[in-house]
């Protein structure tokens, strides 16, 4: 019964994870979560290889498991579809890398959400007002902004026929992006598992290219999540049925007494 209960708890966590994936299907730059499971401790009643006679040994032994648990969750950093928005301040990353965001208190966060805005000073900021780093400032008299695939930001100002460079957007790559800590608000933070971030010019040494006027959609597939949800529900029901059968067996034994 306890083994089945551990399976029910694991599947409940699985359902919660799937629900979060589905809830964020329209969240820009969201990466779906996947749970990994592992078996709990085994009770060894007879060791494999134990002697059965003076010349023979047990080939398999006898071990009874005690259920399952959630071992870990992992962010699957596969590329999401790039959706055309025609907004000059929407920037999608096609390939590997994250935007680096300055929280203003000496800390930095990382995101794939490239829906930027201009603040009162012309700086590119997130929807919550945190500045993109390295900082990009658009002149107040700019008539248009162009972001190249390599991250070069150019603007056209009134009275000038040529484009002026306003800055360079860099992307940050990690040795193990799956080791980043999800912080909410589409932000990730560095951990010992992710390793330190390395800022690179887009399109160089494996870094992704930038696409102006596009936003990266969530990489969640609703069809796949619904299939996973049905499987989790069926696994939960089977574990629940196991508890019911064990209870009926105990009831029969009690009636015999």
Short description:
Helix content is 22%, strand content 32%. The chain is an alpha+beta fold and 257 residues long.
Task: Tell me what you see in this structure.
With 257 residues, the protein is α+β, with helices and mostly antiparallel strands. It has two domains: 2-76 and 220-256, no CATH class; 82-216, no CATH class. It is built from two helices and 20 strands. It has helices at 2-23, 222-256, and strands at residues 33-39, 42-46, 62-65, 68-75, 82-84, 91-94, 99-102, 108-111, 117-118, 124-125, 131-133, 142-147, 152-157, 164-168, 171-173, 181-184, 187-189, 198-200, 209-212, 214-216. The strands form nine sheets. Strands 8-7-11 form a three-stranded antiparallel β-sheet, with no helix packed on it. A three-stranded antiparallel β-sheet has the order 12-13-14, with no helix packed on it. Helix 1 runs antiparallel to helix 2 (222-256). The longest helix has 35 residues, at 222-256. The protein is elongated. It starts with a helix and ends with a helix.
């Amino acid at each position: 019964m306890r083994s089945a209960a551990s399976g029910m708890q694991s599947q409940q966590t699985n359902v919660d994870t799937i629900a979060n994936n589905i809830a964020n299907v329209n969240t820009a730059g969201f990466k779906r979560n996947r749970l990994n499971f592992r078996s709990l401790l085994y009770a060894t009643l007879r060791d494999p290889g134990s002697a059965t006679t003076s010349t023979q040994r047990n080939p398999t032994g006898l071990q009874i498991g005690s259920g399952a648990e959630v071992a870990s969750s992992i962010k699957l950093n596969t590329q999401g579809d790039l959706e055309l928005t025609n907004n000059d301040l929407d920037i999608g990353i096609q390939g590997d890398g994250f935007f680096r965001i300055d929280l203003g208190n000496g800390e930095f966060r990382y995101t794939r959400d490239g829906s930027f805005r201009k603040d009162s000073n012309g700086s590119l900021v997130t929807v919550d007002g945190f500045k993109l780093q390295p900082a990009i400032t658009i002149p107040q008299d700019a008539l248009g902004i162009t972001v190249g695939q390599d991250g070069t930001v150019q603007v056209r100002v009134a009275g000038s026929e040529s484009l002026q460079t306003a800055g360079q957007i860099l992307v940050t790559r990690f040795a193990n992006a799956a080791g980043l800590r999800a912080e909410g608000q589409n932000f990730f933070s560095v951990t010992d598992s992710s390793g330190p971030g390395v800022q690179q010019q887009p399109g160089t040494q494996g870094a992704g290219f930038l696409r102006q006027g596009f936003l990266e959609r969530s990489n969640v597939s609703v069809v796949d999540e619904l299939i996973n949800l049905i499987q989790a529900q069926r696994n939960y029901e089977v574990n629940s049925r196991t508890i019911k059968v064990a209870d009926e067996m105990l009831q029969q034994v009690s009636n015999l007494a």
